[in-house]
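Teaching note: in complex prediction, the entire set of molecules is handled at once rather than each chain in isolation. The prompt given to students was simply: 'Predict the structure of this complex.' The entities are:
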Amino acid sequence: MAYLFDTPEQRQRMLKAIGAGSVDELFEQIPRELQLGRELSLEGGVSELELEQDLQRRLGQAGGGGVCFLGGGVYDHFIPAVVDELTSRGEFYTAYTPYQAEASQGTLQAFYEYQTLISQLSGMDVSNASLYEGGTAVSEAVFMAMRINGRDGRVVVAGSLHPEYRQVLRTYFSRLGTEIVEVPASGGVVSVELCRAALTTDTTALVLQQPNFFGCLEDIAGLTAAAHAAGALAILAFDPLSPGLLKRPGDYGVDIAVAEGQPLGTPLQFGGPLLGIFTCRSEYVRKMPGRLVGRTVDRRGRECFVLNLQAREQHIRRDKATSNICTNQGLLALRTTVFLSVVGPRGLCQMAKLSHEKAQYAAACLTRLPGVVLKYDRSFFREFVLETPLPATEVLTALAARGFNVGPELSRFGDSLGEGLGRCFLVALTEKRTRAEIDALAAALGEVLSG
Amino acid sequence: MDPETLYFAKTHEWVSVTGNVATVGITDFAVRLLTDIVYLSLPVAGKVYRPGQAMGEVESVKAVSDIYAPVSGEVLEVNLGLPEQLQLLSESPFERAWIVKLKLSDASELEKLMNRAQYLGHCDG
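The expected output is the structure of the full assembly:
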């Protein structure tokens, strides 16, 4: 049976339509002695997340084989059931990239809505219809910067940018003459002075991340100003949940903002597939990679949707196209569209706030254990680097055996994050984690460390 | 500007020479073939080009085409108002729709270009 809900406004409208002043008046003809005369003895409503957690508790499941405190790029955020319900509809689920506008109006409209939502979320002028994931989006952004300012000597990258994004960038640039200069982030963030010193007159862009890979907050406004002073563009990889609490990329004045879109409605699914969010300022739209959906009217004046500015793309521009990516991550972009529509600005803000507050609480609990410290004493959003007296791999294996998935350990990324990080790992919190789970993690870590 | 006095490149640019300044635009034939032009990107002053190097691009609803330097030289001046008045490309291709003025560095390169009659023959062929 379909579940139908009504709002007080809808109830009023229905009452008005049949000429009743109130629900009591509607039921007046039922003899008073047969009426219950009180509210049904039902418990108050609970949120979807609370209901899901309650069911899991009753079924004795710990949410898929362990409590998730995993960070480092993908996160265990809440996904309303309506996201799966709508995106698994055949019309969407099997639709391929919309080459044929006349046959793809539904898909095109969904991507148009996606672009609108992402533009609002990022504070940037334009969003494309998405790329594959965060790492390739960063590389595409650097290529785009080179097309915009014609500089190809150097790209300056913050050492606090996700090490896998940097690896993807190095792969893309492995046969090009452009030098990739990484500015170390030894204290958990990059310094404006070091970045300024690395920016040369042939530097195309400065690539930053907010919050950065360590979870710490960078001085994006100062770093953006340094990039612009050197005639370079500022590229920001942002966390798409962060605008719920922090400034939007557009508010910092960056030129291109990209993101890994997974936190917005896509499950962890063992690390992929993911979603590449790509946005820029309007003056650069013709240099942008990927598909772009626009709204227009057909010859009878009816609203319709089309692929726009296709002359940038591979099937028309051949070898001079802005990218070899001539499609988008359709299904996951759709998930994000449904997710953002359901959660809304207030819901997103609530998720960001809860994640942040729980991260604060977890950091306080965990650092109460002897020998456990925050590696970087800086403001963080929803994850932080923890250092314990034991090797991180050992600690994480022992925690996993106790039902807690934590990490990744920083040593997994070689020395790309700096040296002497063998006892460090990431801990991430989302709105889904409960106080009991956090307390249990602290107890388990205490056990592990005391041997 | 009288098209008969201009030099033409196979890639559909025209050149008008005054002293050591070469004014460059794209031909009426090119504009007609491109159909609806929606966007024009210009080079920046100070850049130096060799013949055949792409200086900018012109985008129509069908395609994007490069604008090539017909002769070598440094960009002295750019028609910055043109991208806002794209209709000039068809209304006044040899006059108001000039694109760039280059400081001519080697006048002998002009000999490799065509005159109007040769260019029209090239377009027919």
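Point out the following to students. Chain A touches chain B through six residues (CB under 8 Å). Chain A is about 35% helix and 15% strand.
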